[in-house]
Amino acid sequence: MSETCNHDCASCKQDCAKRPVKENTNAYSKVKKVIGIVSGKGGVGKSLVTSMLAVLAQREDLKTAILDADITGPSIPKAFGITTKADSCDLGLLPAITKKGTKVMSINLLLENDSDPVIWRGPVISGIVKQFWAEVIWDKVDIMFIDMPPGTGDVPLTVFQSIPIDGIIIVTSPQELVTMIVSKAVNMAKKMNVPVLGLVENMSYCICPDCGKRINIFGESKLEKTATELDIKPLAAIPFSPELASACDKGLIELFTADWLDKALREVVDFSPKNSFPVPQ
């Protein structure tokens, strides 16, 4: 460690013993690609985007997993209709598997009741996230999506420092305030040398069910403008959809059929055969 060290590893380019080391998965897991889904603030649909991307990846015959790192506000199990608890064996924790085959690990799969609050301090929560990565038996995974809590606090820092993440997708909504907050997430990723793969705008508009007119509830979309200002790719604009909201509430996210995120998935996943584990004959 340098004598002039300010203990800010995020801004330091030097190698030293104090720099956080990426955690390895266990011997029974092999994860090819890890994509984080982040947001600068809550309530913009980050978990929804995580779930939809996982569903689309699974439909492309990619072995898909979700690590739900939103420890204090987990919602992934509900969207997929998972009601069972996680199992374990002598080798580690076993993720739940959705009806279509996506592997999921979430704190709600370990709590006695889904409504039990998680009243833990930051270091404990960060430790749980690292355990989900290193101690869960994920087996073979082509792509893992990490649903992170909003903001730039302990958990995003832990994920960026401890997990070999390939890049992040930032989720936002059209309000000007959120545009400002998006820049915080982008700047954090840049300081941590994590690639920003693109921007998804949720609640971008709605379609009138009577006349079919497009209505911009929060004003004109800020997707292109924000992406240009921050020099990142605009990936998708997702509208308000009562059908999609209902599917999530009923645990039927795997049945949605919209193509809003098709481009986003193809931007972050190489679909060449070498990037998928072979199907056993």
Oligomerization category of the chains in this entry: single chain
> What is the CATH third-level topology name?
Rossmann fold
What are the secondary-structure elements, in order, as H or E? EHEHEEEEHEHEHEEEHEHH
Span from first to last CA? 52 Å
Secondary structure class reads alpha/beta
- Gyration radius, in Å: 19 Å
Query: CATH top level?
Result: Alpha Beta
CATH architecture: 3-Layer(aba) Sandwich
Portion of residues in helices? 25-40%
Q: Approximately what portion of the residues adopt beta-strand conformation?
A: 15-25%
Global mean pLDDT: 87
Q: How many domains, in number, for the residues?
A: 1
Shape: globular
| Count of discrete alpha- or pi-helical segments spanning 4 or more residues | 8
Spatial strand arrangement across the major sheet: 5-6-2-7-1-8-9-12
Low-confidence segments, ≥5 residues, pLDDT <50? none
CATH superfamily: P-loop containing nucleotide triphosphate hydrolases
Largest sheet: 8 strands, mixed
Number of strands: 12
Q: Can you characterise this structure?
A:
With 281 residues, the chain is α/β, with parallel strands linked by helices. It has one domain: 3-Layer(aba) Sandwich (Rossmann fold), CATH 3.40.50. Helix content is 29%, strand content 20%. It has eight helices and twelve strands. The chain has helices at residues 46-59, 76-80, 122-135, 154-162, 176-191, 223-230, 242-249, 262-268, and strands at residues 29-38, 64-68, 87-89, 92-94, 96-97, 103-105, 139-147, 167-172, 196-201, 206-207, 214-215, 234-237. Strands 5-6-2-7-1-8-9-12 form an eight-stranded mixed β-sheet, sandwiched between helices. Helix 3 runs parallel beside helix 4. It is globular.
